[in-house]
From TrEMBL, chain A:
UniProt-annotated location(s): Cell membrane; Membrane
Alphabetically ordered keywords of this record: Cell membrane, Copper, Electron transport, Heme, Iron, Membrane, Metal-binding, Oxidoreductase, Respiratory chain, Translocase, Transmembrane, Transmembrane helix, Transport
Any one GO CC term of the record: plasma membrane
InterPro entries assigned to the protein according to its UniProt record, in alphabetical order: Cyt_c_oxase-like_su1_dom, Cyt_c_oxase-like_su1_sf, Cyt_C_Oxase_1, Cyt_c_Oxase_su1_BS, Cyt_c_oxidase_su1_bac
Gene: ctaD
Role, per record: Cytochrome c oxidase is the component of the respiratory chain that catalyzes the reduction of oxygen to water. Subunits 1-3 form the functional core of the enzyme complex. CO I is the catalytic subunit of the enzyme. Electrons originating in cytochrome c are transferred via the copper A center of subunit 2 and heme A of subunit 1 to the bimetallic center formed by heme A3 and copper B.
Leader sequence segment: none
Domain Cytochrome oxidase subunit I profile as annotated: residue spans: 25-533
Predominant localisation class: membrane
Catalytic activity, as annotated: 4 Fe(II)-[cytochrome c] + O2 + 8 H(+)(in) = 4 Fe(III)-[cytochrome c] + 2 H2O + 4 H(+)(out)
Family that this chain belongs to: Belongs to the heme-copper respiratory oxidase family.
Protein origin, superkingdom: Bacteria
Protein name: Cytochrome c oxidase subunit 1
From TrEMBL, chain B:
Gene3D superfamilies from the UniProt entry: 1.10.287.90, Cupredoxins - blue copper proteins
UniProt family annotation: Belongs to the cytochrome c oxidase subunit 2 family.
Lineage, top ranks: Bacteria, Pseudomonadati, Acidobacteriota, Terriglobia, Terriglobales
Known catalytic reactions: 4 Fe(II)-[cytochrome c] + O2 + 8 H(+)(in) = 4 Fe(III)-[cytochrome c] + 2 H2O + 4 H(+)(out)
Organism name: Silvibacterium dinghuense
Signal peptide limits: none
Bias-annotated ranges (Low complexity): 350-361
InterPro entries referenced in this protein's UniProt entry, alphabetically: CcO_II, CcO_II-like_C, Copper_CuA, Cupredoxin, Cyt_c-like_dom, Cyt_c-like_dom_sf, Cyt_c_oxidase_su2, Cyt_c_oxidase_su2_TM_dom
Protein name: Cytochrome c oxidase subunit 2
Residue spans crossing the bilayer: 37-63, 84-104
Length: 554, 368, 246
């Protein structure tokens, strides 16, 4: 009989399992020296949350300053330092490590049926590198700040500012190695550590997208690293690789920088897409529509992602013909994203849909990412880019992708796997409210910026012509709402650590391997190596399995 | 009425009503083309967004758990997936072609465009009209006439943006970039620096004043400082001793510069170079990399001896050279003046560079 | 059997496992561990390749633009020292391979010997490199710190056929030396890291760590060492041997 209706065991009798990775050892030392991927995932969660709120505070200052056209709250140079820090912290210390560092760390080994990532010590090292990088960024911030923008444009960063560029550059260099190591770990784990029967096409889509993102991390990050090394050398001892007065070419820096920093966008968004695949499948109780297409579109995004960097430089005097090619490739990279969106929508068709919080965030992701992606097409189109680039249109575009897309996906994932990570449920009503507040706040904050951008308001302006004020006020008002939307989950998730309902091993009746073990898992994840004999998202298998089980938990 | 609501909110509403705009003014020949592409893109965005929202909403209603307790497993559908691969691809390809056509329209100036030079530096824009008028953070242009800007930065990257004209171009240290537009509506428009360039980035703004042809001529006449760029260039040309080699004589040590602008010049390394502003500027700073065939590589570099404004003057002078008559004239004068220094080129240049009458001493005309 | 039933008995018998001491807990078999570590190493070398790749791109661009300056800059380097260093590194690759072979055969003394020779060769390489750097410093060829173009605006006595550079091109030798120091400096940094790891390996090899069936670490380090060698084999012709026939 092929029914997918799962009869839930009685949740009221559920208790927390006696032995978990959380109570295996106690004390700070057991955390700081752990090699357990699950604990490292939690370490990441703590650091990135910390940095997220610092970066968020910076964003708040930026929006407050822009409430009025004059530079009245912050002086121009302070404003520049604040938006630079906002960019550096959010990109390198929050978005890049967000899903791979926390959820990826926690879930990748479990999902492929392994006991740990391939290199647990290196995994811990990458958390330390990330934290050291973060501390260096904070050191740069406290000792006076950096005002180059997160793009470190030469020759501004090498010759014309007198702030802590070296500290910040080295900080990013260090965090870069953190993400290289995470990438290597994930790739090796996916290649070499899969459980028997876990073929490539039985892998959850979360694994596919993290795998694709890891390829980008491994191949892209070193190029940024060397570009930053050269910037630091140029600043300290004055070598002349990017210096036009010595015969160097500042555009070369742009090429090297964007060779990483465009793929970095996909490093940030791809793992989020993986989360969305899991969430949408689970809450519509259906296999993801066109699994293969979604899996390959992740890889396609990773491959094409390396070939579009020049679209950040269309007005910088690059050859028109190379601009043509890069514009064409940019159009091509938009297609796999469109495929994903439609496949997710089609997954809902004839499903059995419930609307838990992760699903709401996933819907938010789909709407906002669609806008973010389509406005990316505006910018990839050569003639349109001339007017829109370097304005608030671009700010709105990447915030739709990064905040509307990635952050929504991250929150979806955190809520979705929270029962697995902690063994307890989050409060459902409050979290739905938070999802709604976030969505409204987000639209209010960033939608006006599209209009501002088309009106021509340049980005990174501490002061602006008064006619732009109305839209800026709207945006600042939205940012306040958004801030509340982000504070709520932090509060109730912390609350749920002690007071949340006990979740049981599989509260969502999901099919992934991670849901077939206890929550929170034991240190070794699986007591026996699992043998996988079913496809990903096979709800019939799950229903059968549940039917044959003893109906007690714990 | 505003007794019911707070005065701050009232003021805000008034501002909203008087200042709210969704589109900047369409004030150039390009603007309607850009806006057309924009409307197309907005249309496909709305279409895509509405489609996704509709799909999600309809499915959520139809297949919510209460109505559809059991999901029907569907593997996928190649036909459907091909549909939503090909349709977006087609729409994006239209965007690509349209955008590319617009790009070439924006960046390929018509041949009859008048040329204005712009030098960007932290944190001001300096415009130099061919007639020698200088402006800071302002640019006066005639309506109905194509204007090309040849731009360079003295320090860091800047970007010259006029939203009302829908044009923008990066201004880069060490190389010329150009942008052109044809204003269609008289008026005053924003000029922004859009590439982050340091502390006072947001103060690197200015006003573009588009005026009728007559007004423009009146303005030009009223703001002249007496010397055109080419005239400045001529003086510089003589004082740097350029004329001693580029005299135009058959036996001269340097190539003949009369009518060289726009020509195709054979290079000593083989191949040809189109002589444009960038080539002339680069030949002065990096002569070794641009050696004309048939001449010995004896030209010294003038790197560090001429300011960007001085280079613009010389370039403008060379562009205006239709014969060698003026060079011969200046040569005679400077031979008298520099009788002592003649031939000692290395020592001569540095001394003369300090004394050259380039724009440093020029009175700046700042309109308004 | 359903897995959360399993999960209630986490005290599975560790002591009962009879796996070799070097097999880490999360690997199923020695074979899996070997494959995973060597795959990880290759991936790491791929990132190293991209790391140096950025500089090679810069080199390519500027060499095309400023060819005469690159020739003149290159002529200031000592081909002899460069060649010696190349030979040293290739030899060290050989000794590294022999070390790996010794580890695989379980010969502890040979392993320690070959690793020590590799380390020694690495140190000699760095010593020669350091003396080259010192010479550059004395000749004022270090861009930014003490660069002077005077060597390039006159005919190089070692290459009388090569004309002196005009001043504008002579200044571009700074770009050459910037790349020279950046590339060889990054290479030397990798050598230093390699030597530190090597010292650790020798220390542990003396305790017999790699000669009891577990050779992954030595093999993977070997890959790293060969990679450094290969990078040098590109750097040497690109930096030292530009247009030497003239």
């Amino acid at each position: 009989m092929s029914s997918t209706i799962v009869s839930l065991p009685d949740q009221t009798t559920a208790t927390l399992p006696k032995h978990t990775y959380l109570n295996n050892e106690y004390g700070l030392k057991s955390w700081l020296l752990t090699r357990d991927h699950k604990r490292i995932g939690i370490l990441y969660l703590i650091t990135i949350t910390f940095f997220f709120f610092i970066g968020g505070a910076m964003a708040g200052l930026v929006r407050l300053e822009l409430l009025t056209p004059q530079t009245d709250l912050l002086a121009a140079d302070t404003y520049n330092k604040v938006f630079t820090m906002h960019g550096i912290i959010m990109i390198f210390l929050f978005l890049v490590p967000s899903v791979p560092g926390t959820l990826g760390n926690f879930l990748v080994p479990i999902m492929v049926g392994a006991k740990d990532l391939a290199f647990p010590k290196i995994n811990l090292l990458s958390w330390y590198l990330n934290t050291i990088g973060g501390i260096m960024v904070l050191a740069a911030l406290i000792s006076g700040g950096v005002d180059t923008g997160w793009t470190f444009t030469t020759p501004l960063s090498t010759h014309y500012v007198n702030t802590h560029v070296i500290t910040a550059g080295l900080a990013i260099f260090v965090t870069g190695f953190s993400s290289i190591f995470t990438g290597i770990n994930i790739i090796v784990t996916v290649h070499r550590m899969r459980a028997p029967g876990m073929t490539w096409f039985r892998l959850p889509l979360f694994i596919w997208s993290n795998y694709a993102a890891s390829i980008l991390m491994v191949l892209g990050t070193p190029v940024l690293a060397i570009a930053l090394v050269l910037v630091v050398l140029e600043r300290t001892i004055g070598i002349g690789v990017f210096d036009p007065t010595k015969g160097g070419d500042p555009l070369l820096f742009q090429h090297l920088f964007w060779f990483y920093s465009h793929p970095a966008v996909y490093i940030m968004i791809l793992p989020g897409m993986g989360v969305i695949s899991e969430v949408i499948s689970t809450f519509s109780r259906k296999r993801v529509f066109g699994y293969t297409a979604v899996a390959f579109s992740s890889v396609a995004i990773a491959v094409f992602g390396f070939l579009v960097w020049e679209h950040h430089m269309f007005i910088m005097g690059v050859s028109s013909y190379s601009a043509l090619i890069f514009s064409l490739l940019t159009m091509l990279v938009a297609v796999p994203s469109a495929i994903k969106i439609f496949n997710w929508a089609a997954t809902l068709y004839k499903g059995s849909i419930t609307f838990e919080t992760p699903m709401l965030y996933a819907f938010g992701f789909m709407g906002l990412f669609t806008i973010g992606g389509l406005t990316g097409v505006f910018l990839g189109s050569l003639g349109m880019d001339v007017h829109l680039t370097e304005t608030y249109f671009i700010v709105a575009h990447f915030h739709f992708v990064m905040v509307g897309g990635m952050l929504m996906a991250f929150l979806a994932g955190i809520h979705f796997w929270w029962p697995k990570i902690t063994g307890r449920m989050y409060p459902e009503n409050l979290s739905k409210l938070a999802a709604l507040v976030t969505f409204i706040g987000f639209i209010l904050t960033f939608f006006p910026q599209f209009i501002l951008g088309y009106l021509g308001m340049p980005r990174r302006y501490a002061a602006y012509p008064p006619e732009f004020q109305v839209l800026n006020v709207l945006s600042t008002a939205g940012a306040t709402v958004l801030g509340v939307g982000y504070l709520l989950p932090m509060l109730y998730l912390t609350w749920s650590l002690k007071y949340g309902k006990i979740a049981g091993p599989n509260p969502w009746q999901a099919t992934g391997l991670e849901w077939q073990i206890q929550s929170p898992p034991v240190v070794e994840n699986f007591l026996e190596t699992p043998v996988v004999d079913y496809e990903a998202y096979d709800y019939e298998w799950l229903a059968n399995k549940t039917r044959n089980e003893v109906h007690t938990v714990g | 009425m505003h007794t019911f609501i707070s005065p701050v909110l009232w003021q805000f509403l008034v501002k909203w009503l008087t200042h709210f705009a969704i589109f900047p003014p369409e004030a150039s020949g390009i603007a309607p083309y850009t806006d057309a592409l924009y409307f197309y893109l907005v249309a496909i965005s709305i279409f895509g967004f509405v489609l996704v929202v509709l799909l999600v909403t309809v499915f959520s209603v139809l297949y919510r758990k209460e109505r559809s307790p059991e999901a029907t497993q569907i593997e996928g559908s190649t036909l459907l997936e091909a549909t939503w691969t090909i349709i977006p691809l087609a729409l994006f390809m239209v965007t690509f072609v349209w955008g590319a056509l617009l790009y070439f329209r924006i960046f390929n100036p018509p041949t009859n465009a008048m040329n204005i030079y712009v030098v960007g530096k932290q944190w001001m824009w300096k415009a130099e009209h061919p007639g020698g008028q200088h402006e800071i953070n302002a640019l006066h242009i005639p309506v109905g006439r194509p204007v090309q800007l040849t731009m360079i930065s003295q320090d860091v990257f800047h970007s010259f943006s006029i939203p009302a004209f829908r044009v923008k171009r990066e201004v880069i240290p060490g190389r010329y970039t150009t942008v052109w537009f044809e204003a269609t509506q008289p008026g005053e428009y924003h000029l922004f620096c859009t590439q982050y360039c340091g502390t006072l980035h947001s103060q690197m703004i200015g006003t573009i004043t588009a005026m009728s042809q007559q007004d423009y001529e009146a303005w030009t006449a009223g703001s002249t400082s007496g010397m055109s760029l080419a005239q400045n260039g001529e003086r510089l040309f003589a004082s740097l001793g350029c004329n001693s080699c580029h005299s135009g004589d058959a036996a001269a040590r340097g190539p003949n510069l009369a009518q060289v602008y726009g020509a195709k010049l054979p290079l000593s390394g083989g191949g040809y170079a189109m002589v444009d502003d960038a080539f002339l500027r680069d030949s002065i700073l990096n002569p070794t990399m641009h050696q004309t065939a048939g001449y010995a590589p004896i030209m010294p570099t003038y790197q560090g001896q001429i300011s960007e404004e001085g280079l613009i003057d010389i370039v403008e002078y060379i562009k205006s050279l239709h014969s060698n008559f003026r060079i011969q004239q200046t040569l005679n004068t400077s031979q008298v003046q520099n009788a002592v220094q003649e031939g000692i080129s290395g020592a001569g240049h540095s001394g003369e560079a300090a004394a050259h009458p380039a724009s440093a001493a020029q009175p700046k005309v700042v309109s308004q | 059997m359903d897995s959360h039933a399993i999960a209630t008995h986490p005290e599975h018998a560790h002591a009962g496992h009879d796996h070799p001491p070097f097999l880490r807990h999360h690997f199923e078999s020695v074979e899996q561990q070997r494959e995973a570590t060597s795959f990880g190493m290759w991936l790491f070398l791929l990132t190293e390749f991209m790391f140096f790749g950025g500089m090679f791109v810069a080199y390519l661009v500027y060499r095309t633009w400023y060819y005469p300056a690159f020739v003149a800059g290159s002529h200031q380097l000592s081909v002899l020292l460069g060649s010696i260093n190349t030979v040293i590194l290739i030899c060290s690759s050989l000794t590294m391979s022999l070390a790996v072979y010794a580890a695989q055969k379980g010969r502890k003394a040979a392993l320690v010997r070959w690793l020590s020779i590799t380390l020694l060769l690495g140190l000699v390489f760095l010593g020669i490199k350091a003396s080259e750097y010192r010479e550059k410093w004395e000749q004022h060829h270090v861009p930014g710190l003490n660069f002077s173009v005077s060597d390039f605006v006159h005919v190089n006595p070692a290459y009388p056929g090569q004309p002196a550079l005009p001043l504008d091109m002579a200044e571009k030798t700074q770009v050459y030396f910037s790349l020279y120091f950046a590339m060889t400096g990054m290479h030397a940094l990798h050598m230093i890291i390699g030597i530190c790891v090597l010292a650790g390996l020798i220390f542990r090899a003396r305790a017999g760590a790699y000669t009891s069936g577990h050779t992954n670490t030595v093999e993977n380090f070997g890959l790293y060492w060969h990679f450094i060698d290969i990078v040098w084999n590109f750097l040497f012709p690109l930096l030292y041997l530009i247009s030497r026939h003239q």
